[in-house]
Amino acid sequence: MHPDTALHSSDGPTSAAAKMQMLHQAQAQDESAVASAAAAATAAAAAAATAAAAAALTDDEPLTEPVAIKQAAPRKAQSLDLDSISMFPSLGSSSTRPAATTSTWGAGPSSRVKSAAGSKLGAVGDQRRSPAAALAAASATRVSSSGNVQERMQIPAVQTPAFGKATVGDIVKNVMTSSGARIESTTSQATGLTTFLISGKPEAVAKARLHLRSSFAKKETVKYPVPSSARAHLLGVKGRTLNSIQSKTGVTITVPPRDPQETTFEPANTNEDDLDVEEAMVLIDIEGDAESIKAAKEEVDNIVSKACRITYRYTTIPPTYYPFLSGSVVQSIQQETNTRINIPSHVSAHDDDEDEDAKDVAIVIQGDRKAIRKSLKLLDDKHQEIVLNTRTMTINIPKRQHRFLIGTKGVHIKEIHDTTGCTIEIPPVDSSSDSIIVRGPESKLIPALTLIMEKANSSQVETVDVAAAHKPVAGRSKTEHARRVTKYLSGRNKLRKIEQELEDVQIVVPRSEGQTSVTIEIVAKTRVQVEAARKRVLETVAALTPALFDVIQVEPLLHRHIVGRKGQNINRLRETYGVEVIVPDAHSDSHEIVLVYESANSSDLADSAKIRAALESVKQQVDKLASDYADFATKTLTVPARLHRNIIGPKGSTLIAIMGLEPTTSVRLGLPRDGTADAVKASGVPTLTEDSIVIKGPKEEVERVAKEILTLVEETQSQQVTNAYSASFDIPATASPHVIGKGGANINKLTEQFQVKFDLNDRAASDEKTKKKSSNETMEVTIQGVKKNVEAAKETILKMVEQIADATVAKLNIPVEHHSALIGAKGHYVRRLEEKYGVRIQFPKAGELEDEDKSKLNVVMVSGGKKGVQGAKEELLELLDYEKENNNTLEMVVEPKVLPHIVGRSGAKINEIQEASQTRIDIRRSSETDEKKEVRLVISGSKAGLKQALKAIQDIVEAQKSQVEEVVHIDNKYHKVLIGQGGSTLREIIAKAGGPSEMSAQASLVKFQNNNNAVLLRGDKTVVDKIKSEMLTMVAEQENWTTLTISIPAAQHRQVIGSQFSNVKEIENNHNVRIQFPNNKNKKEGAADTSAEAIAANDKVTIKGLRENCEKAKIDLEAKIRSSASRSFSIPKRYRQAVFGDGVWKIRNEFHVSVVLPRGEGGRGGGKRIDVDDENVTHGITDGLSWELHDLSGTNEEEEDAQYTVQLQGTEAACAAVEQHLTGLLNKARASTHVLKIRVPTTYHGLIIGSGGNNIKNIEAESGTSTKIARGEELISITGPKEGVEKAKQAIIRVVSTSDKRA
């Protein structure tokens, strides 16, 4: 062993060369801390020479003493040459292995040389390091690719145990055993430093380092002050937080017990006086080494900083300066003071907040007292700087344009400030002032003014004075009526339709009750849009006359009873009497309910007696609904306004505790919200003051609430601090985790709900850790705050404990194969059971169980109240029995080629089997090669269902086994004959052979090849043989067929052929022939060939078949010719559109008669145009729908004499029936003297038509008209007599109006 080095290792043998290299690498750094520059260079050379000699040894050679090297005395004036090879010789290379370039310690040779050189100036200082500093010295952590880390740790000689160096190895061995890390240690006799090399997993290395430090480092005890209010947070629940700090840092912390007289609670919101009060401190003892104590202090400070944060509300700075403080200014203050500052976004008093009291303009600061005081000073300094550097300018802008300066949620105010650095101050909405104050740097005021004017003039504004739209009525105020009109328009969105029809138009209905005038503002981009919208609004307002309105006064607390569940009461009144009931908003104090009579019929709106009767009836109904709650009472208390805040409590918590979570009363403190004389008068109570408290509701509940409020007031007046009340009680320790909740969720919720503070003290926390807790162990709960809130919180916790005491757990043995069925898709079934019985059901997860716990896979846990657990248990077992009966499984193997037939097209066949058998079929393919792979079908369901599904699949498999494939060679010229027209012949062949009727199956059964004579037959052998035989028979007959040609005039072809070839098919089927008519469809006008040859060709009809069959078919065709007839039918030309407007195809299909129209004239058009604006057209608008009425009764002699003649071709009886039909249409057309064109938005067309066309059919039947609705267009045309047309129009308008009311 080297004389200057002691080696301690407990991890097996290490090679001599590796040991030597490792020791000298550490020694090179250690000795640099105590030697001079020259001595360091000489020591490094000696170490290098020794390492070179060691490198030449093999791993099997023993470690020998190094050769002594004579040192030369350093020269006095010669500086150290770090690059000298003689002073710093390089290590020799080995032939057996390369020299290591990276040391085991984590630093390369170059870094060691630099460290030695750099220690010239710092060696003496480093030598004087304290033991604690030496203990903390460690190299950078190395992380290997496997995730292991390696760290180096040093301790000075003074820290080594005094009972001998041999003990170091024992300590290291014990630490390795307890931590799982690998440790090697060396001690330098020159410096006295002991170096530890620790490697392993990160957590093992950290644990080993902590144990080494606690074993070697010198212990000391320090007292550290912490705020008394942080004691509970430092301890944690059952001391868990304190134990965590001690285990993490290796120290022992002693926290003194709390003085019973000591107050440990802070108010949630701190005022200016509380901010200057210094909190009482307690001293805790921290025992450990210096580094551990330092780490423990950091952990304690982190907890204290979170626990002792208070909230301070600062209202000294005017809100007008908030925009200048926001952003970077407040961020820099937060960073400097370690606080959290929230500055409200200051929009203006002109914004749309309905509740002015809801606006909170205070700056909220969170942090400790010292940091908050510093933040306040910085905020005040910045505020004074802004005041000195800003100027103001006042401009007048019309009040109606103020909203454009604000924008939606103040976006324009923010844009002006971001662009110019200036802010604007806008007067409140109820102020008559037009003045705008611009504040900012003097150089930015002009650009800000320019941008303000641009925003103000960005839109056109017009107003409608609602009060001026109607004449004054005796006994009624025009302003009051105007306000009721606006309530009706806004409550029923009557102006929304105008906004939707006119683009880029915004109509604003006033909300403020305090204004003397009632005006509706109309905003748009252009003047044209504003004028159009204003006209529409005036029409809407003018129609709402005072005669249609009435009011009734009802206590606001009863409004919800008037409305009814989901509005059923007011809906019933609307449907019965046609009266809309407008109830004030739920947050309003108004007693006034507005009644508005509505009707789509203009005659009803003119009947004042009917309107008054409907309004009076509704008033009686509303009075009756209000009188049903006769137990209603009102009580007024007088309590000084300064105590109202104590009654309300933080965030309304105290008042909620008094009224209950589901209150049946209302409590109003101070004056009504709007503060108007009308509101005070309407409240139905004596004159109110700011000290008044009005309680309304059921009589008994009002008395109870009033009594509790007075009791609270007495307690408040007798106590100096209202939140000093506290209550302590015990709960079972076993219930504490449920009361606290996961991560403190339950206790935090109670704190927020009741605005109280909790202190939980485990009575057994002072017992020894090894002592087993008894089942009777309790936990003390202390609640502090307002007395009413404390008692409510206590009651809530005791109810929770009671529920926990009732809790039980049931274990059910349910086979794991049934778990998925009981859980349901995405847990649907198990969630339903949990919600139904209020329990928790836990199914085991295989991945979370160890191998020895696999037996627990069948155990299902049900926990909750005893009654709920029993109910859930019984239902689960019932479901299990059902699953055992119906959730059977059967597997069968099929060949892959059969699978497509089992599945069917798009899964149709397998779905059919599943639905018929009420089973589930899963397909599982084999992973083997194509030659060996198979398909397994897993069928799940009841036993009967399995049997049915199995039989259906086996039938398919058996059917596929009899499938054959055969090719028949038939000359290509006969393919067309075998297929027939539209495939009719082929279908007949397949049907005769017993083949499938589905076209898709027929297509796969017979396939004709296009390029050769082959016909592929694939299917059941019996069917294929029959098809083949039938085809060959038909081909043989075709070879003996002949062709017979007869002449039938082309004009009679249609009658002979019949509807959809019915006559021809009948003859072909009867005589087994094929009949071909020439393709002489209608040609373009002027292009017909009138030559004799062409006419003769168009008359030729060919018959193909056996000779005798062709002759019989010819006789039948000639009989059809003889039975046909042709007639002429004439009507006045002006009625051709009415008679033939729908085309002649209906006549052809219904009567089997062809209608030949005059050449060059179609069936459409003709008649008098009704789209020309002449003296016979009347225009009008009804309920917003425009219409035109055309009078068609006026005719002239020329129109009456002009005739329109058509030719009817068919049988005598059919032609006579058509003449009778056309005569009826002509008579109806003569009676239709008027046409009404009305434009209705397409969104209403569906309602007008009705389900299956029922509505439009009823309208036509009742009015005696015919109606046409253009697809995708607004135009609806109604034709008929004038009275019928008017009746149909009113019916359509009624449908549209009814739809608007429902919307």
From TrEMBL:
Highest taxon above the source species: Eukaryota
KW Coiled coil (keyword) present: yes
Keywords: Coiled coil, Repeat, RNA-binding
Keyword Coiled coil: yes
Gene Ontology molecular function: RNA binding
PROSITE patterns in UniProt: KH_TYPE_1
Domain K Homology: 147-217, 218-305, 309-384, 389-457, 458-542, 546-623, 631-714, 723-802, 806-881, 886-958, 962-1036, 1040-1122, 1232-1297
Entry coiled-coil feature ranges: 776-803
CDD domains for this protein: KH-I, KH-I_Vigilin_rpt4
Compositional bias (Low complexity): 93-104
Renumbered residue ranges of the record's region Disordered: 1-24, 91-125
PANTHER family according to UniProt: KH DOMAIN CONTAINING RNA BINDING PROTEIN
Name listed for the protein in its UniProt record: K Homology domain-containing protein
